[in-house]
Amino acid sequence: MSRIDITLTVNGEPRELKVEPRDQLADVLRGPLMLTGTHVGCEHGVCGACTIEIDGAPARSCIAHAGSCDGATIRTIEGFGDDEIMRALREAFTREHALQCGYCTPGMLVVGRDVVRRLPDADEARVREEMSGNLCRCTGYRGIVRAIVSVIVARRHARREGACR
Amino acid sequence: MNAGATGFGVGAALRRKEDARFLIGKGRYVGDITRPGMLEVAFLRSPVAHARLKRLTKPAGHEQQVFTIDDLPEIKTIRANSALPGFRVSEQPVLARGKIRHVGEAIAACIAGSRAEAEDLAGACELDYEMLPAVSDMTRAHLPGTPLLHEDWSMNAFLETHRNDDVSGLDAIAAAKVTRTLRTSRQCMAPLEGRGVLAEWDPRLEQIIVTTSTQMPHVTKSGLADCLGLDEGQVRIISPDVGGGFGYKGILLPEELVLAQLAIRLGRPVRWLEDRFEQLTAGANCREHHYVITAWADEAGRLLGVECDAIVDAGAYSSYPFGACLEAAQVGSILPGPYALPLLRCHTMSACTNKPPILPYRGVARTGVCYAMETTLDALARQLGISAEAIRLANLVRPEAMPYRNLVGKVFDSGDYPEALRRAVAAIDVPSIRARQAKGEAVGFGLATFCEQGAHGTSVYHAWGIPFVPGFEQAFVRLSPDGILEVRVGVHSHGQGMETSLAQVAHTILGVHPDKVRIVLGDTALTPYSTGTWGSRAAVMAGGAVAEACRQLGDRIASIGAGLLQVTRPDVVVADGFVRRIEGEGSVSIADVARTWYRAPQNLPKGVDKGGLEVTAGYRPDPDTGTHSYAAHAVVARVDLETGAVVLEDFVVVEDGGKLINPMIVDGQVLGGLAQGIGTALYEEMPYDGAGQPLAATLADYLLPGSADVPDVRLEHMETPSPWTTFGQKGIGESGAIGPPAAIVNAINDALASIGAEVTDLPATPERVLAAIAAARAGKA
Ligand code: FES
Ligand code: FES
C-alpha cells in the first residue's frame, strides 16, 4: 500500500509523518507519536473517548483519516498544559469525582472545555445534552456534569465581577 | 482508633490520588504499552453459532503467521468445574477444536506487524464448516431432541437446583396470589476499555510476563500456569490501569493463554487488543434470565410463600474461575431478598446455549432476582389494594431482629431496612403524583428494596467448589528509610479509587499522611496473593488486611520509638505520624524510627523485632458469611402513551454501606452502578436471532446510557456499622446496579395501572411499553 506524506502541527510542534491510507488519526497519535492519552473505546465514532481538537474544534480521531488531515493543527489531552479552562476543569473533575477508571476522561475534558467556551450560559440540562456524545461506563455522569457546570458558573461570576469593576 | 480525626483517615471524602495521572492523559492501559519487536494479534472468529469445523485454509505464503489449536497443542482446555451436585463441566478449547459453539468463538490467531495486517490475514483465511442447528432459546435448550452443544452430555444444561418447601396449602389460606412470567435481556458489560493482553517471554527469569486488563491478576496467574503446564514461578501477571471491569475482566481468557503460548513459541512480545465489535459480538455474556414466579400473601401483605422457576442463559462454556452457574444457582438464595419469607420453592436451570459463556456482571444474579421479586410484590400490592410501601414494610426484616438468619441460611449483619424505605418514600412527593394520576397523567411511582451480600469468603465459597476459594486476604506494608509507607495488595483497582481509600486506612492506623502512602497493586511479582477484586470485597477484605498489617507494623514502630525515647513499649502510642509518650513530653517521628532501623541500627533498642519494618498480615472477618449493605430506590417515571418513551423525573437512593471509608468514592460507586442499572432497565439488550446471531454489533445498536439519560440522582446514606468488619465497613460496589430495573419498571407499571398494563420484560423499551399498553387495551376490549 502506498504511504501518504502529511504534516501536522501536534500540540504546537510540527510533525512530518508517513501514514497508511487506512490509518486513522487516533492510530497515528497513539502509535508513532506516542500520545496515548487519546483513548479508543469503539473505533466507530460513538463513544467519544478519542475526542481531540482538530483546528480548534472537537473531533473524533478514530474516524478521521490521517491522510486527509494534512496541514491540520491538532491538540490532544497532552497539549493543554497552559490552558486556563482546562486547569479549572481538571480541578473540578477531581473535586466532583468525575472520573473513576479514567478511560473516558481525556475525551470528556476536551469536549467539556469546548462546552465551557461555547456555552457560557449553559445550565445542567444543557450540559447533559452537550455531553451526551461521550460515554462513561463508570461514573453515572453526575460528577462530570457537576464539574463542567461548576466551571461555567465560576466563569460567569468572574465575568460579572469584571463587568462591575 | 482515630478514624477521620485528622480529615484524611477512614470517613474522609478525600480527593483521589490517582486522578492526577488520568487528568493529564497519563493513565497507562494495556493498549498504551508497546515493546520492541512486538507483534500484533487478530483472532479469526466464528461467523456462525453452531457448526462442525471441517477445515481452515491458511492464506498462501502466510502459513507461519496463522495458529490454530492444532498448532498450539501445549495449551490445555479450560475447565471450570463446580462441586455442586449434578454439574456438567465443559471443556473449552482456547481455539475452536472440531466444533464451533458460539458466534465470535476464536478459531485462529493471526500475527503480523500491525493489527490491520493481522486482520487482513484473518480475513484471508478460508473456513469450511458444516452448520448445525443453533440453540438460542434458553427456555427450550434442555428439551429432548435439541442438538447437544457438548455431545457427551444428556441435555443442554450445566446444572439444575431445587428447593422444595411445601407451598401446596397456600392457595387455601392466601388473600392474594399472583403469577408472573418475566424476562431480562442478554447484556454486554461494556467497560469503555476493552480487554487487552500483551505477553512476553523473559529468557533470563524463564518467565512468561502477561500484561493484561484483569480484575484478578493472581487467579489469572494460577489458571494460566495450570493450562500451560508451567510452574507458578514462571508466570507473572501485570494488570496496569484498567478501564473498567464490572465482572467483564474477572476471567481467565482463552486469549491470554494463546498469547502467552505464542510469546513463548516465537520469543517475541505479542499483543491483542479487543475491539468493540469483538466485544459486542463475542462478549455479550450476562444477565439473561427467565422467571415464572408465584407469590402468596395474607390480607396485610405479609408473604406466605414464593414459588419460582428460573432459567439463566449460561452460554456455551463454563468460564474460569466463576463457572457457569453462579447466577442461576444463586437465584434461590437471593430471592428472599431483605424480607422475612417463610416458604420458598425454587427450581433453577443454567441453560447451555450457543452464546458466549456467562460472566457475573455487577450485581451478579441480584439485578434479575430483585426485578422478579420486586415487580411481583407490586403486583400483589395492587391485587390487595395496599401501597407498595405497605407491602414492603410488612415483610422487611426488622432492625431488632439483626443479626438475622433467613430461611436459606443467609445472615444479615446489621441495619434498619424499613427506615431506608421510609426515608426514600419521604423524599418523594407521592401525593402530588397521585394528584397528577387522577388528572389522567401517565406518571408513576416505583420502589425497590434489596440487600447486597458482599465480601463473603471461605464459608460461602467452599461449597461452590469452583477453581478458587477466597481465604485470608493479605497485605504487605513496609516503612522505607525516608518514612514513606509502601502498601502492597493483591486486589486490583480499576476505578474504585483504592490508591486513595487504602491510603486512608493506613493513615487511620499509623497517622502517616496519605501523600506519603504508596499503594502498589496489579502485579503478581510485587503483591501478596489475592483472589482479586470482585463480589464487593475489596473495601472489607483489603481494607481489613491493610489495617491489620499497619497495626502490626505500628507495634514494631512503637517498640523502636519507645527505645529511642528511653521508655518502654507500654509508655507510648503511635499517632499522627509520631511515636509519643502517653504521659509526659517526648516524641519521635515515624520517619526517625525508619531512619534508625535502616541507617543507624547501632541505636536500636535491645530485643528489637528482627522482622524490621516490613510486615505481611492476613485478615478475614469472623464470621465471613459476608456483609449486607442494603438500599431503597424510589423512582418517578413518566410514560408517553403515544410513543412508549419513559422519562425518569426523579430518582432517590437511600443506601447503607456501613461505615464509609471514603464517602465520595462510595457515592461514585453507587451512581456508576445506578447508570448501569438504568441501562438494564431501559436500553441495553443484545438480541440474538434464531440462528444464534447477535444483532447489535456497534454502540449505535447496543445502547449505553448517556449523560442525558441519567437523572441527577439524589443519594442519602445511613451508616450502620457491620459488627464483623474492621471499621464497620460493608461491601457496596455492586448495589447501585441492582435496584433500578425493579424500581423503574414498578414506576412504569404504576403509571400504566389505570390502563391495566404491565411491562414484564427488560429492557422496557418503547416497543415493549407500547406492546404492554396494546395488550391491556385488547384484553379489555
Ligand atoms: S473511539 Fe472514537 S468515538 Fe469511540
Ligand atoms: S471513568 Fe471509566 S469510563 Fe468514565
TrEMBL record, chain A:
Keywords, sorted A to Z: 2Fe-2S, Iron, Iron-sulfur, Metal-binding, Oxidoreductase
Listed InterPro entries: 2Fe-2S-bd, 2Fe-2S-bd_dom_sf, 2Fe-2S_ferredoxin-like_sf, 2Fe-2S_ferredoxin-type, 2Fe2S_fd_BS, Beta-grasp_dom_sf, Diverse_Oxidoreductases
Domain 2Fe-2S ferredoxin-type: 4-80
GO terms, molecular function: 2 iron, 2 sulfur cluster binding; metal ion binding; oxidoreductase activity
Membrane-crossing segments per the record: none
Protein name: 2Fe-2S ferredoxin-type domain-containing protein
Native source organism of the sequence: Reyranella soli
Automatic annotation (TrEMBL), chain B:
Gene source species: Reyranella soli
InterPro entries: Ald_Oxase/Xan_DH_a/b, Ald_Oxase/Xan_DH_a/b_sf, Ald_Oxase/xanthine_DH-like, AldOxase/xan_DH_MoCoBD1, AldOxase/xan_DH_MoCoBD2, AldOxase/xan_DH_Mopterin-bd_sf
Alphabetical list of SUPFAM superfamilies matching this protein: CO dehydrogenase molybdoprotein N-domain-like (SSF54665), Molybdenum cofactor-binding domain (SSF56003)
SMART domains registered for this protein in UniProt: Ald_Xan_dh_C
Superkingdom per UniProt: Bacteria
Residues of the signal peptide: none
Gene3D superfamilies in UniProt: Aldehyde oxidase/xanthine dehydrogenase, a/b hammerhead, Aldehyde oxidase/xanthine dehydrogenase, molybdopterin binding domain
Pfam families: Ald_Xan_dh_C, MoCoBD_1, MoCoBD_2
Keyword Oxidoreductase recorded: yes
UniProt entry keywords in alphabetical sequence: Molybdenum, Oxidoreductase
GO terms of molecular function: iron ion binding; oxidoreductase activity
Domain Aldehyde oxidase/xanthine dehydrogenase a/b hammerhead, residue spans: 24-133
Protein name: Carbon monoxide dehydrogenase
Phylogenetic placement of the source organism: Bacteria, Pseudomonadati, Pseudomonadota, Alphaproteobacteria, Hyphomicrobiales
